[in-house]
Amino acid sequence: MRDFGPVALDFDTQSAIAEADRCLGCLKRPCVEACPLHSDIPSALSALAEGDVEQAGAIFRATNALPDICGYVCPHERLCEGACVLGRHGYPLAIGALERYATRHSPAPRLAPRRRSGKHILIAGAGPAGLAAASDLLAAGHQVTLIDAAPQPGGWLSSAIPTFKLPREVLNVHVDRLLRAGLRLKTGTCLGADLSLEEARQQADAVLICTGARVEAESLPGAGLAGVWQGARLLSAVLRADQDTVPQLGTRVIVLGGGGTAIDCARTAARLQAQSGQPVDVTLVYRRRAHEMPAPPRDRQAAEAEGVRFRFQAAPLALRPDPNGALQSIEFAETSPGAADESGRARPVPVPGSTFLLEADSAIVAFGWRPDPAVRRLDPALELDAAGYIRADADTGATSLPGVYAAGDAVRGPALVSQAVCDGMRAAAAISAYLRARS
Ligand code: SF4
After folding, report:
1. CA-closest candidate to residue 335, choices 347, 319, 320
2. What is the dihedral of CA 318, 319, 322, 323, to 10 degrees?
3. Band of the pLDDT at 41, cuts 50, 70, 90?
4. 50 backbone dihedrals φ, ψ, rounded to 5°
């Protein structure tokens, strides 16, 4: 557990075939229904059970532009594996691992469109929605320019998903494939800052906005103290770090939050402590009950196995300084479950007189996300919803501006990678139809 190498267990050929052979080929196909991309899982597993890995990979690719990435980062136990009938009386099929196996052992064919359309599409945002759309638009024969504010493509996948969850070569293979197909990639270029939406619309026949929604939510009193990290910034700092710049978290680390990012932060902190020869002392504190955590249960179990402790039903109130202005402790109140909120979960209600302090060298705050306020400044005619996300047609991604589409988290808010991929692919199909209709 000391390193940041991948932790996902991969099948060998024999065990992949044996596992795929357990599939019952259910007529009602609950696994397909539960998949945001409606991948034809039974057909892919049938091909795999017969040893036809290429066909299995092709079936997964037919509905998913990034199937190997989804194989690593999707919470399968909540989706296809959660719906698999074999789970009712035993173990569900390991669909995620089989998807990884099939797609990693059957390289995607070259993107080689038969005809060039002569149309140019500019995509802003090189995360999963932007990469998926770029793949389909290049395959359709369009010229595609993909810009991203970050120095490397991948969006959240490259800036914050730890390498122990997603090996970077899996992402790099996709980017290389797009570049070989003629993608013009411009990193360090931000829509709204380096290129206005109006300029983008003048330069391209259509624009697709996939700029995401990963701006960290409001924090706590004391968030500016030394020793306090925002979760995404810590993950990004670790990914960029060399030996001299590895974040030093100290001996007692407390992570605040209950989502996937909070768990990733806790597991990252545990690795940093183990690497520096310290005992792991990482506690994740969540204000609700264990079963109400948004984080995938499998990630929580992995964190526990790696030494992360969990404390539930405690809401942070403030981060307290020592005399030198560094974090010393965190003040909490115990909570009890109240009436259901808009998420359907019991609202955590502070218990009067229950405040307590936990001492910590570092606090990692991972409370969630809010829409990127920069989207508001792109164009006053670009309609947003009440929360600040771009208003776009659910099937096409069409926005209030002609020829401008939007997909992924910028529209629906932070969601699964598979949902962003699905949105990007739908928008790509709609853009091709829009350009065909205009030519
Ligand atoms: Fe196979 Fe499970 Fe899907 Fe049934 S639900 S078709 S057993 S993967």
Report:
1. 347
2. -60
3. very high
4. -90, 5
Read off the tokens for 371: 């829409």
Whether 133 contacts 126, CB under 8 Å: no
Which of 84, 88, 98 maximizes ligand 1 atoms within 8 Å of its Cβ, making it the mutation to test the pocket? 84
> What residue type is assigned to position 12 of the chain?
D
Residue 24 CB–ligand 1 contact under 6 Å: yes
**Taking residues 52-57, what's their average pLDDT?**
97
CA atoms within 13 A on the CB side of 159: 19
The string of pLDDT tens digits covering residues 272-308 is: 999 888 999 999 999 999 999 999 888 999 999 999 9
Mean pLDDT confidence for 210-227 = 86
pLDDT (tens digit per residue) in 403-428: 999 999 999 988 899 999 999 999 99
DSSP strand E in 305-416: where? 309-312, 314-321, 327-340, 346-350, 356-359, 362-365, 369-370, 404-406
- Determine whether the shortest distance from the Cβ of 33 to ligand 1 is under 6 A: no
Cα 172 to Cα 68: distance, rounded to the nearest angstrom = 12
Look at the pTM and tell me if it is higher than 0.90: yes
Residue with tokens 């409001």: 218
Distance from the CA of 42 to the center of ligand 1, in angstroms?
Answer: 6
Please work out, in degrees rounded to the nearest 5, the angle formed at the alpha carbon of residue 52 by the alpha carbons of 51 and 55.
155
User: Environment class of residue 122 by beta-carbon count within 10 Å: exposed (0-12), middle (13-18) or buried (19+)?
Assistant: buried
User: Which domains can be identified in the chain, with CATH numbers?
Assistant: 13-104 (1.10.1060.10), 120-214+370-438 (3.50.50.60), 218-367 (3.50.50.60)
Encoded amino acid at 422, one letter: C
Distance from C-alpha of 140 to C-alpha of 118, rounded to nearest angstrom: 11
